[in-house]
Design brief:
The structure holds 2 protein chains of 2 kinds. By secondary structure, chain A is α+β, with helices and mostly antiparallel strands. Chain A folds into 5 domains: 2-77, no CATH class; 147-299, Beta-Lactamase (2-Layer Sandwich); 320-392, 2-Layer Sandwich (Alpha-Beta Plaits); 398-458, Histidine-containing Protein, Chain: A (2-Layer Sandwich); 465-582, 2-Layer Sandwich (60s Ribosomal Protein L30, Chain: A). Chain A has 18 helices and 17 strands. In chain A, α5 crosses α6 and α7 crosses α8. By secondary structure, chain B is of the alpha/beta class. A 6-stranded mixed sheet of chain B has the order 2-3-1-4-5-6, sandwiched between helices. In chain B, α5 links the parallel β5 (109-115) and β6. Chain B is globular, with a radius of gyration of 15 Å. Classes of the chains: A alpha+beta, B alpha/beta.
């Protein structure tokens, strides 16, 4: 008040001063004197105050002394200060961010971190609850009842779910200009469906007017709620704007307070625009966040621990972990098997891969090597699919060359085989036949290029027996006789003799061959002394030839039977006899 | 976005609803509206460079027994008074309504509609009447909802008055 007075008097003084300048200088002194007379000591004070107000610096100093107290006082009285400062602070913050963003960021950092963390936590929690909600709706016995209920009542399933699970849901909030019924702003919950909000807004106003006119109520009273089944419209009247909230279910009593609070805030912030509203609604876009604050939803049993979701998550995670563990274990075993197969002599792993059918091993195997399945037998547990694909090959490792040589040569215990480089060293005692085999195939064995058999002693245990047997055979053959009739060279009843002789000749042939010899059986004939010598000589020759031809006819090789020798001088015998020669 | 509330006024069965139907071709809960006595429609128009949404209040007609509820008229930016050319009474009602609104709300945008132009042969409204209306210095437009004659001009005639002149240019 003091300041205002000061201003007024200052204005008056200034006015009069101007007047003094213009008409005449005479009046000025008189007027000044009159002032001094009238105001006395106060005149001095007033002049000082005037100076103080005119001097910008001094006036600022004066205001600076009281400005914080003034702000505090006003803030205690009402909320107008925050409304008044709000645009300025907003602009200041905005400029600060434009000018130097890091400063504000640094200042907010301690607040933002926890807030962001909490926000993430809430989002996760919400997601878990939604998931649980979905699971419950689709799995629980209750949901089956609801579906039955929906079928029975002819409602949609979602409607039934909403009814059963909702305590309340605010579907729409209208901010309506009270006088014209025009819609200033409208907020809609994501689940709700709205018809034309502008027309609804008009109708809500018309209904209000209708009630007020029809039932002669005073203009202060107005419709508070409008109810149809589980749908309620709550009205909140402000001086210039009305809020209407469409609610499904039963909201708590505080909901009305919330509407009042929001309406008051809107009036406080937009009082001027509401008062002077001429149809331009764009300014009220700023009210949308406030209206959205009223879009509340409360579900039943919201605090229930989300068992189903947690169970499902735990199951999925458990299964995932178990699968990973199994996979890792299998991989370890497969790699261990690979190591074992690689370490095994005579086996070469040329390929290893994991396919849908399991682990595949491509293996080359020397015939002397251990079976690959035996190598990994200890590792092959359960139904782990380790598939071995084996192909043969020959190893050049000394052990395997030696083993191969032993297998092919089949040496007797008296023979010792060893390998020096690519030379197969043969020591000990062996039979000639074995030695023969050694010479024939020894150098053909893969990995063996030379044979060293200087220390091999050849012992033939069968030689003596063979000689004896041969002697016996020679004797038997040489003592065999076939007698002819007088003066005849025809072979009569020769079968028994021939059979015996042929068997002996074949045995002889075989035995002689074993000893490396070739036998020759000579047949000679003889005659008795009854005829002339010429006849006898011819008869003897014919007899030998007849037997020869017969034997050849019976299959005795021609090489064995020699031409008949001349008569050996035996007389008085109508027979043939044999002589064996060995070459 | 600019929004304006406009009202259609007039005696019973002068064709207010038909005019709106013709103009908007949209309905909002017929049954309920009949009971309450008002029906609301919406139409978006563009005047010059201004987009304007007209919220059209179709108020039940007035006669000797019912009078229009003044509550419905609150906050209106303009109105259309509809006269049935075949009925003298509707002309009198129109003048009375116009006078009442002028008293209650002061000067607001208005247009007079001489409806049922398709029945012009039966009209009882003559040149003198029309001249008297024109004296009120508001547009007077002959319309026929049936033939879609003058309907667009009628609403646009009102809409032009609602948009501030500076934005119209």
């Amino acid at each position: 008040m003091l300041v205002t007075e000061g201003l007024d008097s200052h204005a008056a003084i200034q006015q009069t001063t101007k007047q003094q300048d213009s008409p005449a200088a005479q009046g000025l002194d008189a007027l000044e004197q009159l002032r001094v007379l009238l105001l006395g000591a106060d005149y001095q004070t007033l002049s000082e105050l005037r100076q103080q107000l005119l001097d910008r610096e001094r006036y600022s100093l004066h205001v600076a002394e009281v400005i914080s107290e003034a702000l505090t006082l006003r803030a205690q009285q009402d909320n107008s200060l925050s409304d008044a400062l709000f645009p300025t602070i907003e602009a200041a913050v905005s400029r600060s961010v434009e000018h130097n963003p890091s400063r504000l960021a640094n200042a907010l950092y301690p607040v933002m971190g926890p807030a962001i963390r909490r926000s993430i936590q809430e989002v996760l929690q919400q997601a878990l609850e939604t998931f649980n909600h979905l699971l419950e709706q689709s799995l629980s016995v209750r949901s089956l009842f609801w579906r039955f209920d929906a079928w029975r009542t002819g409602r949609s399933y979602s409607e039934v779910v909403l009814l059963k699970t909702l305590v309340y849901q605010v579907e729409q909030v209208f901010l309506i200009h009270r006088e014209s019924g025009l819609l200033l702003q409208h907020a809609l919950s994501p689940q709700a469906i709205s018809k034309d909000a502008d027309m609804i807004s008009g109708m809500l106003t018309a209904i209000q007017d209708f009630i007020r006119d029809s039932f002669q109520v005073t203009s202060d009273n107005s419709l508070k709620t409008l109810q149809l089944d589980e749908l309620t419209v709550f009205f909140n009247q402000g001086p210039y704007a009305m809020m209407a909230a469409v609610v499904r279910g039963n909201p708590p009593a505080e909901f009305n307070n919330l509407l009042t609070e929001v309406n008051e805030q809107i009036h406080r912030q937009h009082f001027y625009f509401l008062k002077t509203f001429q149809g331009d609604t764009s300014i009220f876009k700023r009210c949308l966040p406030l209206l959205e604050r009223c879009l509340k939803t409360q579900l039943r049993d919201t605090k229930k621990f989300p068992w189903l979701a947690v169970l499902a998550l735990v199951t999925f995670t458990g299964a995932g972990l178990w699968w990973s563990y199994q996979y890792y274990q299998h991989k370890l075993i497969a790699e261990e098997a690979l190591g074992a197969l690689r370490a095994e002599p005579g086996l070469v792993v040329v390929g290893f891969e994991k396919t849908d059918e399991g682990y595949q091993y491509e293996i080359l195997k020397d015939p002397q090597a251990r079976e690959p399945t035996a190598v990994i037998q200890a590792l092959q547990k359960g139904n782990l699919p380790l598939n071995l694909h084996t192909k043969p090959y020959l190893s050049l490792e000394p052990t395997f060359v030696l083993a191969r040589a032993k297998q092919i040569l089949q040496p007797s215990p008296q023979v010792n085989l060893s390998l020096e480089g690519k030379t197969l060293v043969v020591q000990g005692q062996a039979t000639p036949s074995w030695q023969q085999k050694l010479v024939q195939v020894g150098s053909l064995i893969t990995g063996v290029e030379f044979l060293e058999q200087s220390k091999l002693q050849i012992i033939d245990p069968d030689a003596e027996k063979l000689t004896e047997h041969l002697g016996r055979l020679v004797k038997q053959i040489e003592t065999s006789r076939f007698n002819f009739s007088l003066g005849s060279s025809s072979l009569e009843n020769v079968q028994d003799h021939a059979q015996q002789v042929i068997a002996l000749i074949f045995d002889l042939l075989k035995t002689a061959r074993l000893m490396g010899k070739m036998p020759q059986v000579s047949i000679s004939g003889s005659a008795d002394e009854t005829g002339s010598e010429t006849i006898n000589e011819r008869l003897a020759k014919e007899r030998a030839l007849a037997m020869r031809d017969y034997l050849l006819q019976q299959g005795v090789p021609a090489a064995v039977i020699a031409v008949p020798k001349p008569d050996t001088g035996r007389r008085d015998e109508r027979s043939i006899h044999y002589q064996v020669d060995l070459f | 976005m600019l929004q304006k509330k406009i009202c259609l006024l007039g005696a019973f069965s002068v064709g207010k609803t038909s005019l709106i139907q013709r103009y908007v071709n949209k309905l909002f809960s017929d049954k309920y509206l009949t009971t309450v006595g008002v029906k609301i429609d919406k139409k978006q128009v563009t005047v010059g460079s201004t987009d304007l949404t007209l919220i059209v209040w179709d108020i039940a007609g007035e006669d000797d027994f019912t009078s229009i509820r003044s509550a419905h008229l609150r906050g209106l930016s303009g109105y259309i008074v509809v006269i049935d050319g075949t009925r003298k009474n509707s002309f009198d009602v129109a003048l009375a309504l116009h006078k009442r609104i002028k008293t209650e709300l002061g000067d607001v945008a208005a247009v007079f509609a001489l409806n049922k132009a398709d029945l012009k042969a039966q009209w009882v409204i003559n040149h003198e009447h029309i001249h008297a209306l024109a004296q009120l210095s508001y547009p007077v437009i002959e319309t026929s909802a049936k033939l879609d004659q003058g309907v667009e001009d009628l609403f646009m005639g009102l809409a032009r008055q609602l948009v501030p002149e500076n934005s119209e240019v």
